[in-house]
């Protein structure tokens, strides 16, 4: 969600702050702002809307200063407006904030009783007013920050600028991510390593309840009143990794990166010489796992649903897939000796992190599948299987999803071998199918004009679209519908094919396109029957299948996408690509903001 940057520099920082905010646009936002110290006083510029509005204001009203903070805001408390845009300031402090202060009303009532006046509708302002109240009682900034951390409840990351103090910035985190960057006589603090990438590769990650005092030459990190040490690491992210290249949008760039990133992921988990899976050492024995619980949100949850089919089929291991935002409140009993797999692109998803903690408290071994090995979910797991997708900037997840699927399939194969339900020959067959997958994804990508035509002529004019799939293709139908909703704003729903007769078939008419995900596998005859039922009611059928499926059904479809023949086990990964491209080209045809869809955030760090 919100993006944060703070810099103590040698040169004017405003251009650097704005540049960093551009790298944080992917997180989703509806206003932006920066604040610096000018002759000891806080000065700021804010604007509702996209960053170009802030840049236009800065062009009219330049903002000098060598120390400053910046923010892209995704509204929680208070509607999107310049009044509620960050930085939020008093005459003593300016604050940028990601997250929610859960006890803001209690604190606000207390501060109002002191006679303090509030100028915004945000929960953030209670932090600014609280610190100001403490400073006016002659507390030093360091004392005030330590005291405030004991008063605040919720999940948040904060960076604070103090009037009259050109020598320090302060930050704090609880629940939301915050990283510190080390430069040469300059220091940086930001939401993640991506924000800091062009400035430094030397990064440390704050932990929950840390607060930090930055000076130009370093920083001191505290928990409560005690100083603690945080490891400085070399970040592998560079500024070059987050450009669009020759592509119009990040989403299409990231879709086209999938053959490479899936290949990179496979190199980590497969030995091509022996055609076997090579996972890192695990703190559990697959053969002794009684039940597997998988938890995630959004697209990552659909990856878990596909993996449920794989683990149960290949390893005969019972699996429960839990929506992370529901798991901890439902408080399900989790068996002794169980394993919980948490899946997240960012590794900071607040609901998934909370579900992980619940599972951990239930004595589950935690295995996480994340794209950011330094993330909170990774740090709190017993073992991490990185997805190696590289930075994903587009809000709608694409390459992160296919690499999640790739990792989960290799884990399912390993589990099957360990449990004696998968033979060495089967492992070799599946390993070969995975080794061939990047080339087959590339083939699917080479049909761009066909996807564009279907999107423009069939999907873009629709009000509603249905997606159907059976077996492991059902979650891909769900993912296809989600992608279309996210980026084109067309209402779409995914269904298991067998459920059509239990209600959704009432929606079918000549105005409703139906996208059918149908590799010619063991249950192809069943989805073919659903296909014919839709056709009989005048639905516009878009068929995704292989050569054998096309030979049987293409004549009944208004459009057919014929994909390479693959092993049915890996088909969900391949069939993800066309549903992504249909969504992308439909959004382009409708003229929506593909990379930053309205109301959405890349990393959901608040409930």
Protein topology:
Layout: E1 3-8, H1 14-23, E2 31-38, E3 41-48, H2 51-60, E4 67-73, E5 88-89, E6 93-101, H3 104-113, H4 124-136, H5 141-151, E7 154-162, E8 169-174, E9 179-182, E10 187-190, H6 193-196, E11 202-205, E12 210-215, E13 218-223, E14 226-228, E15 233-234, H7 250-256, H8 258-269, E16 270-271, E17 276-277, E18 292-296, H9 298-314, E19 319-323, H10 324-330, E20 339-344, H11 350-361, E21 365-370, H12 376-379, E22 383-386, H13 399-418, H14 424-445, H15 448-459, E23 464-469, H16 474-488, E24 491-496, E25 513-517, H17 524-536, E26 540-545, H18 547-553, E27 559-562, H19 571-590
Helix pairs in contact: 3-4, 4-5, 8-13, 8-14, 9-13, 9-16, 10-11, 13-14, 14-19, 15-19, 16-19
Model description:
With 607 residues, this protein is α/β, with parallel strands linked by helices. The protein has an 8-stranded antiparallel β-sheet with strand order 3-2-4-1-10-9-11-15. Strands 5-6-7-8-12-13-14 form a 7-stranded antiparallel β-sheet, with helices on one face. Strands 19-18-20-21-22 form a 5-stranded parallel β-sheet, with helices on both faces. Helix 4 (124-136) packs across helix 5. The longest helix has 22 residues, at 424-445. It is globular and about 80 Å long. The N and C termini lie close together (11 Å). The model has no long low-confidence stretch (mean pLDDT 90).
């Amino acid at each position: 969600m919100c993006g944060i940057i703070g810099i103590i520099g040698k040169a004017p920082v405003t251009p650097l702050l704005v540049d960093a905010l551009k790298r944080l646009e992917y997180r989703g936002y509806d206003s932006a702002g920066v604040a610096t110290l000018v002759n000891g006083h806080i000065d700021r510029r804010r604007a509702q809307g996209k960053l170009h509005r802030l840049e236009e204001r800065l062009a009219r009203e330049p903002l000098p200063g060598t120390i400053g903070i910046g923010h892209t805001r995704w509204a929680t408390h208070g509607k999107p407006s310049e009044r509620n845009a960050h930085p939020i300031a008093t005459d003593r402090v300016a604050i940028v904030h990601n997250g929610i202060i859960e006890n803001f009303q209690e604190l606000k009532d207390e501060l109002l009783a002191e006679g303090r006046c509030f100028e915004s509708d945000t929960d953030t302002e209670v932090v600014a007013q609280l610190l100001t109240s403490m400073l006016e009682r002659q507390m030093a900034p360091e004392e005030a920050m330590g005291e405030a951390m004991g008063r605040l409840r919720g999940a948040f990351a904060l960076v604070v600028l103090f009037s009259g103090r050109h020598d320090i910035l302060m930050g704090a985190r609880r629940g939301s991510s915050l990283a510190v960057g080390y430069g040469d006589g300059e220091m940086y603090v930001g939401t993640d390593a991506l924000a800091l990438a062009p400035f430094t590769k030397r990064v440390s990650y704050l932990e929950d309840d840390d607060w930090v005092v930055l000076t130009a030459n370093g920083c001191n990190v505290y928990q409560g009143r005690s100083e603690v040490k945080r490891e400085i690491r070399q970040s592998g992210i560079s500024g070059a990794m987050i450009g669009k290249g020759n592509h119009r949008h990040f989403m299409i760039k990231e879709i086209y990166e999938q053959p490479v990133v899936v290949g990179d992921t496979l190199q980590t988990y497969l030995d091509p010489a022996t055609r076997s899976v090579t996972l890192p050492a695990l703190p559990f024995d697959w053969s002794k796992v009684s039940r597997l619980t998988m938890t995630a949100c959004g697209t990552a949850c659909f990856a878990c649903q596909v993996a449920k089919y794989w683990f149960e089929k290949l390893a005969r291991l019972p699996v429960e897939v839990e929506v992370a935002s529901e798991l901890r409140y439902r408080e399900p009993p989790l068996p002794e000796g169980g394993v919980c797999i948490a899946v997240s692109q960012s590794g900071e998803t607040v609901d998934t992190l909370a579900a992980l903690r619940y599972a951990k408290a239930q004595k589950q071994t935690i295995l996480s599948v994340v794209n950011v090995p330094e993330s909170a979910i990774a740090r709190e797991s017993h073992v991490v299987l990185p997805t190696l997708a590289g930075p994903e900037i587009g809000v709608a997840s694409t390459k992160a999803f296919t690499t999640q699927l790739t990792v989960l399939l290799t884990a399912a194969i390993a589990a099957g071998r360990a449990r004696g339900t998968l033979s060495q020959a089967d492992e070799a067959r599946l390993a070969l199918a995975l080794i061939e997958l990047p080339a087959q994804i590339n083939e699917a990508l080479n049909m761009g004009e066909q996807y564009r035509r279907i999107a423009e002529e069939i999907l873009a004019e629709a009000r509603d679209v249905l997606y159907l799939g059976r077996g492991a293709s059902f979650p891909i139908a769900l993912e296809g519908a989600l992608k279309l909703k996210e980026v084109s704003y067309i209402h779409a729903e995914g269904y298991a094919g067998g459920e059509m007769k239990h209600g959704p078939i009432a929606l079918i008419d000549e105005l409703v396109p139906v996208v059918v995900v149908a590799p010619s596998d063991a249950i192809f005859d069943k989805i073919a029957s659903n296909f014919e039922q839709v056709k009989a009611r005048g639905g516009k059928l878009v068929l995704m299948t292989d050569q054998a499926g096309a030979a049987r059904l293409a004549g009944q479809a208004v459009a057919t996408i014929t994909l390479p023949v693959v092993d049915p086990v890996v088909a969900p990964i391949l069939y993800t690509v066309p549903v992504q491209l249909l969504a992308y080209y439909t959004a382009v045809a409708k003229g929506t903001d593909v990379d930053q869809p309205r109301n959405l955030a890349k990393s959901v760090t608040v409930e």
